[in-house]
Amino acid sequence: MHRTPAVSSSSGVSAKDAFRRFWPYTRGFRRWLVVGALLLILSAACEVVAIWLFGDITDRVLAAKDLHAFWTPALIWLEVAVLTGVATFGGSYLTALVGERFLLRLRDAVFAHVQGLSPDFLDNRRLGDLMVRLTGDIEAIEQFVASGVIQTVTAAVSAVFFAGAALYVRWDLALVSFAVAPLFWVAVRNFTSRFRDAAVRERESSGTITSVVEESLSNQALVQAYNRERAERGRLHREGLSWLEAKMAETRLAALYEPLVQVIETVCVLVVLGFGAWELTADRVTLGGLLSFAAYLGYLYPPIQSLGHVNLLASEATASAERIVELMETRPAVAERPAARTRAARRGRVAFDGVTFRYPGADRPALANLSFRAGPEELVLLTGPSGSGKSTITKLLLRFHDPEAGRIRLDGVDIRELSLATLRDTVTVLQQETMLFPCTVRENIAYGRPGATDEQIVAAARAADAHDFITALPDGYETPVGQRGRLLSGGQRQRIAIARAMVRDAPVLILDEPTTGLDASTARRVLEPLRRLMADRTTILITHDLHLAPEADKVVTLRPTSTVDDPQLARLP
Ligand SMILES: Nc1ncnc2c1ncn2[C@@H]1O[C@H](COP(=O)(O)OP(=O)(O)OP(=O)(O)O)[C@@H](O)[C@H]1O
């Protein structure tokens, strides 16, 4: 419960790397990016024209007190304003659309990748941290890669427009004001690295908070039963404090950045106005010319500020990109062969030949040189002390891992030759802890076979001895089972799981301690449906409880391994 997060924060993904890595996800809608940027540029060009019209009206209408000269520029200004509105709307809409599409695609890809990783990988992670990676981190990358590109392009082009217009109106005044530009860059450079550090801490804290909430609430019964509410609140509060500190560091930097830029901007405007006033008194510039010049400068600073802002976004995005790249670079424990078979004989002959397996990082193998066979309609009982590797056999047969030595065959074919989907379609596992989804009884039974008919579902429930209790539920088959099926009793959950396995109808069945946690009478009730489920299949029954041993065709007893040379051989009854 209190595992440390496996977070790498120093792999050092630069903004350029992040961009290069995630830019391909914009494929297919780049033209909309271009159209969006063009529309926003058009809107900036319209602003240039509007300011020019403002200067013109000042000189030719206001200063000259000539109302007749007002109507033509006023009408043009109105048209330009409408065009600006349309272009801004179109540009903003397309930018958002492209950004959201990018987000959708990236999230789908990261989720699909995580789904391909072995369940053990997820067991070693904090779920909350993974959830934040799939939400907040992906959004930060989008802000930089998709929206960031449009923002950069439009800001750069607008800056050129307004600077060009300012130069056109008064080149000497413009040069004076541009001299201040390097100050902006000094400010931006100073801020970005610090902002990035704060962003890394903020992202990590955000992951930890979600993890604490998820872990604590999903173990609510344990927390209450052991009076640990205060300790859990304390844990969340401590994590919340570190998040607050990181967030405040980020906010301080962002909030300092804005006024600093504004001061630089004000200095610049004052210099220009002072210089302009002197020029005005010497009649070297008109009032309209000076005002429109000042307006161009006023419009020039936001795009420059926005370029600085993209820099801050980039810092935040690299912190998130690091966390996504780390996830994407985790390779699945098993790989499907390119020409893997998609058809299996489905007779259900299982053979373990000299299988040795060691969990990554473990010093002792979990299984050493294990061999046994299980044939159609056979019941093989697998027993042995705790930790002797019984559940590991299930993981290897489902190919969550590959053996280090030896091989596993299904109907004579090495399971590495089969596609993962084909292999897993052939094997049904009934776990020690029955896993149900928080949906209805019907959906849970149909889970392993989407499209199962109502008749098949009811027939499976009857065979699993579950139909009667299901129909007695408030909404029958439509009753929700709650988080992990906790609205049902242990025996009811197990019978729904048996019905789910029946509907799936796979030739190989693995029962991992199917009666653990059930009292003797409930366990007896589950046994009959289990026998019906086992009929006509290859069944590997993992159990400590040997009272089914007389029914078994074979009993395989595992011993905890010490070395690979210490074979765990099948012992026949
Ligand atoms: N994901 C894992 N990573 C590292 N080691 C593991 C992992 N899962 C299991 N092990 C180790 O592998 C060995 C075999 O575990 P396994 O769960 O197969 O035993 P088991 O016989 O099913 O035990 P039990 O009867 O208690 O369920 C144990 O020593 C265990 O600590």
Structural key phrases:
single chain, 573 residues, ABC transporter transmembrane region fold, Rossmann fold, 2 domains, four-stranded antiparallel beta sheet, 9 strands, disordered N terminus, binds adenosine-5'-triphosphate, nucleotide-binding, membrane, ABC transporter ATP-binding protein, ABC_transporter-like_CS
Protein architecture, described:
The protein is built from 17 helices and 9 strands. By secondary structure, the chain is an alpha/beta fold. It folds into 2 domains: 15-328, ABC transporter type 1, transmembrane domain (ABC transporter transmembrane region fold, Up-down Bundle), CATH 1.20.1560; 350-557, P-loop containing nucleotide triphosphate hydrolases (Rossmann fold), CATH 3.40.50. The strands form 2 sheets. A 5-stranded parallel beta sheet has the order 6-7-8-3-9, with helices on both faces. The protein has a 4-stranded antiparallel beta sheet with strand order 2-1-4-5, covered by helices on one side. Strand 7, helix 17 and strand 8 (538-542) form a beta-alpha-beta unit. The radius of gyration is 34 Å and the shape is elongated. The two termini are 41 Å apart. Residues 1-11 and 562-567 have low confidence and may be disordered. Bound molecules: adenosine-5'-triphosphate (ATP). Residues 120, 359, 362, 366, 384, 386-392 line the site of adenosine-5'-triphosphate. It is found in: Cell membrane. Residues 350-572 form the ABC transporter domain. Keywords: ATP-binding, Membrane, Nucleotide-binding, Transmembrane, Transmembrane helix. InterPro entries: AAA+_ATPase (IPR003593), ABC1_TM_dom (IPR011527), ABC1_TM_sf (IPR036640), ABC_transporter-like_ATP-bd (IPR003439), ABC_transporter-like_CS (IPR017871), P-loop_NTPase (IPR027417), Type_1_exporter (IPR039421).
